[in-house]
Amino acid sequence: MEFYFLIRHSFLHFSLLISLISISFAYGTEFKIPRLGALRRKVGSEPETTSTSSSVSNDFETFFYNQTLDHFNYRPESYTTFPQRYVVNSKYWGGSKTSSPILVYFGAEESLDFDLAGIGFLTDNAPRFKALLLYIEHRFYGKSIPFGSREVALRNASIRGYFTSAQAIADYAAIILHVKKTFSAKNSPVIVIGGSYGGMLAAWFRLKYPHVALGALASSAPILYFDEIAPQIGYYAIVTKDFKETSESCYETIRKSWDEIEKVASKSNGLSILSKKFKTCQKLKRTFDLKDYLDSIYSEAAQYDHPPWYPLNIVCGGIDGAPKGTDILGRIFAGVVAYMGNKSCYDMDEYNHPTETFMGWRWQTCSEIVMPIGHGNNDTMFPPAPFNLNRFIKKCKSLFGVQPQPHWVTTYYGGHDLKLILHRFASNIIFSNGLRDPYSSGGVLENISDSVVAVYTVNGSHCLDILPERKSDPQWLVKQRKTEVQIIESWIAKYYTDLIATANKILIPAVAAVKFPGLEVTHSDGKTLKLPITINGNEVDADKLAVPKASLVCLSFRASSQAMIDSWSKPFYEAHRESNQVQLYEVSFVDSWLLCLNPIKRLLLRTMRKSSHGEDTLQRQIVYSFGDHYYFRKELKILNLLTGYVFLLDKFGRVRWQGFGLATQEELSSLLSCTTLLLEEK
């Protein structure tokens, strides 16, 4: 019985594989959706642009998470688990105590191996953000395959049904929360990043899981290429425009070549002539195979027209550079050689081999990722090949036994009236595009709101902004990346402000509190002191200065914020004026290098406000700090110098409560209540 079961399922898998190959070759572009993917495969004409995992630094550590197969049902089989791969790089992370951010890359329709070195945005910006880096592999790709075998998973119709984008982003949420718990990073903001299909996932994730991700960078994400929102010809219209702008003569040669192929093929031995002319590895049986191969080259060259190689220039350089007198098809072949490299023969099925990405993406496009891409008569440089939904559905049903759901993406994630929907319900999403990328025709190219923004470049290509930085990068690309980073920084800054606003309602637990950074201050009489005054401090003379159980340190970086400081310090002083266990410091910062010079500094101190020396036990200590305070402010995440900040410290110098701006009555009540709790701590 077991033998029969194995033989039967092996036969089913073989039949599915044969069906995939035969349908692919039989229907070609009528079935094929141009390849997505953040990274372009290497072609023969250029050096390696990305590295595989074998050359990735030791800073990357691989883990496997015991992932739930089905996040949305409660049947017994739903609780089946499989190992899902994720990779962490903590080299530059500032740590959980500083709530440093986590940058998360969403793997898409291929193994994660290539993304670790091929995607540069995370590693390039990790030092700036002091970020923990997390890369998550998409289910059913790479090493993240249910039941451990792609063959078993894809041949089983029931298992295949869990191969969806909704399950994938639920996976991402589970792993992000797991990593945050593992690294004790509860308050670390998460920014999700993806390119191409992964960019769509990043945008959708921000919409579906706003409590998990603070924001999303969706690079070259064609989220409008569904349900006839974007025009069918959009993709190929931009390919055509790219070639025409690169070289008018190249464009004309390609446009005329399709009829020439049919003209030669109509001869008695025409297919043999074409096979010889294009050095095909197998004799052509139909012209479609050659035309599909050329279509794939032109589309790929336009989509991934990255500097410094610029594949469009390579293709057109070959076509235009053919010897004088070369006929049209001879020039086309010269373009093939220039792009693919000089080979003994050229495999017309090179773009259709049943690779991991090919097989997985076929299923996804046959189930939910239905992108109606085609071209009609004389609207591009390509021969007519309109997208026919009925024919597409029929082919998918014959291949997988399921009917595609062309409206599901817009139903589940939204799409129609997207501008209005995102304006109402979305925030913190960057849609980045390069207008030379054919998929930009399905991208978001205008700002939706103040925080849902479009960042694009006229000369950019597919996912170029998230690739590794190069010294040779053009300035427009450098500027695009800088803009994206600044937007993300603004999200994180606001998050930290909100975090403070939330935190100032409760006393921060001692185990989660961070140490107040050391700060040298000067009284108006010239005497210096180092804050905070702590029970284990070495900078103070314990005989002369008692260690307080609670200290309120008020920081003012500009004179305009003094009123804010007074709104905190005066009520605090009145409440604790008789306490000998509390201290109050008002620190004014002087960062002008001229005023920091000793003679001027001494003169300035004589004119400054002085500490109170009344009869009360609690004294308002008015002190000043001179010099550059960049790193001090950075540790406390102080960004707005026009605002006053207050920090309640315990006897160990840890920040147990904090506030900013003008104090409200509710905030004052919270401060005084937390101070009382602090005084009661043993």
Topology (elements, then pairings):
Layout (H helix, E strand, L loop, with lengths): L1 H26 L32 E9 L12 E9 L12 E5 L6 H6 L2 H9 L2 E5 L13 H6 L1 H4 L4 H18 L7 E6 L1 H12 L6 E5 L14 H13 L1 H18 L4 H8 L9 H17 L7 H10 L7 H13 L15 H12 L21 H12 L7 H5 L5 H8 L3 E6 L17 E6 L17 H29 L15 E4 L5 E4 L18 E7 L5 H15 L5 E9 L7 H10 L12 E7 L3 H7 L8 E6 L4 E6 L4 H16 L2
Parallel strand pairs: 3-4, 3-5, 5-6, 6-7, 7-8, 11-12, 12-13
Antiparallel strand pairs: 1-2, 2-4, 9-10, 11-14, 14-15
Helix pairs in contact: 6-7, 8-9, 8-11, 9-10, 9-12, 9-13, 12-13
Characterize the structure shown.
There is one protein chain. This protein has 682 residues and is of the alpha/beta class. The chain has 3 domains: 60-225 and 460-484, Rossmann fold; 228-405, Four Helix Bundle (Hemerythrin (Met), subunit A); 514-680, Glutaredoxin (3-Layer(aba) Sandwich), CATH 3.40.30.10. It has helices at residues 2-27, 113-118, 121-129, 150-155, 157-160, 165-182, 197-208, 234-246, 248-265, 270-277, 287-303, 311-320, 328-340, 356-367, 389-400, 408-412, 418-425, 475-503, 562-576, 598-607, 630-636, 665-680; strands spanning 60-68, 81-89, 102-106, 132-136, 190-195, 215-219, 429-434, 452-457, 519-522, 528-531, 550-556, 582-590, 620-626, 645-650, 655-660. It has an 8-stranded mixed β-sheet with strand order 1-2-4-3-5-6-7-8, sandwiched between helices. Strands 13-12-11-14-15 form a 5-stranded mixed β-sheet. Strand 5, helix 7 and strand 6 form a beta-alpha-beta unit. The longest helix has 29 residues, at 475-503. It is elongated and about 115 Å long. Mean pLDDT is 87; it is low at 1-30, 48-54 and 537-544. Keywords: Glycoprotein, Hydrolase, Protease, Signal. It comes from Corchorus olitorius. This is ATPase assembly factor ATP10, mitochondria. InterPro entries: AB_hydrolase_fold (IPR029058), ATP10 (IPR007849), Peptidase_S28 (IPR008758), Ser_carbopepase_S28_SKS (IPR042269).
